[in-house]
Amino acid sequence: MDATNAANEKPQREGTDDLSLLGNQGVRYPQTYDPSVLETFENKHPGNDYFVKFNCPEFTSLCPITGQPDFATIYIAYVPGERMVESKSLKLYLFSFRNHGDFHEDCVNVIMKDLIKLMDPKYIEVWGKFLPRGGISIDPYCNYGKPGTRWEDVAWERLSHHDLYPEKVDNR
């Protein structure tokens, strides 16, 4: 390999061989719902239990009845197992909802199920904080704990107590 080619090649990090979006400047944004854009990489600390949290304050989808846009902040928190979701692919995936018609509750459940299928986490929760339309906001929450593990119990506890201390609603 000559010096010119070597300078243009990106060093590959261990466990990231399958990533095609990270660092790719030619990525196209999906125009319809597309879970196939999601990519994973190897968790280098599968023996540690720790949370990874994503906040997406610019999530949009369409009302399946009226076609009007819905805006939300989507919170995704998970305890990884062997695989982790790559953040650029997650951004593209969440963007793919932009022209997708689904109710708020469906959006958060679809996101959670797609991520479970993708990476088989120990635990995951998805919370949508949708802006009001027609004078009411909807904040669906869903979670999952891997069956047969302590995370199954954590899921129930968090679900049954997730909104004990609701935030003060002042301008939404």
Automatic annotation (TrEMBL):
Gene3D superfamilies the UniProt entry points to: 3.30.1130.10
GO cellular component, one term: cytoplasm
Region (Disordered): 1-24
PANTHER family (UniProt xref): NADPH-DEPENDENT 7-CYANO-7-DEAZAGUANINE REDUCTASE
The protein's name in its UniProt record: NADPH-dependent 7-cyano-7-deazaguanine reductase
SUPFAM superfamilies xref list: Tetrahydrobiopterin biosynthesis enzymes-like
Swiss-Prot/TrEMBL keywords: Cytoplasm, NADP, Oxidoreductase, Queuosine biosynthesis
EC number, as in UniProt: 1.7.1.13
Species the sequence originates in: Ellagibacter isourolithinifaciens
Reactions listed under catalytic activity: 7-aminomethyl-7-carbaguanine + 2 NADP(+) = 7-cyano-7-carbaguanine + 2 NADPH + 3 H(+)
Pathway of action: tRNA modification; tRNA-queuosine biosynthesis
Active site: 63, 70
NCBIfam families with a match to the protein in the record: QueF-II
MF GO annotations: preQ1 synthase activity
Main location (coarse class): cytoplasm
Gene: queF
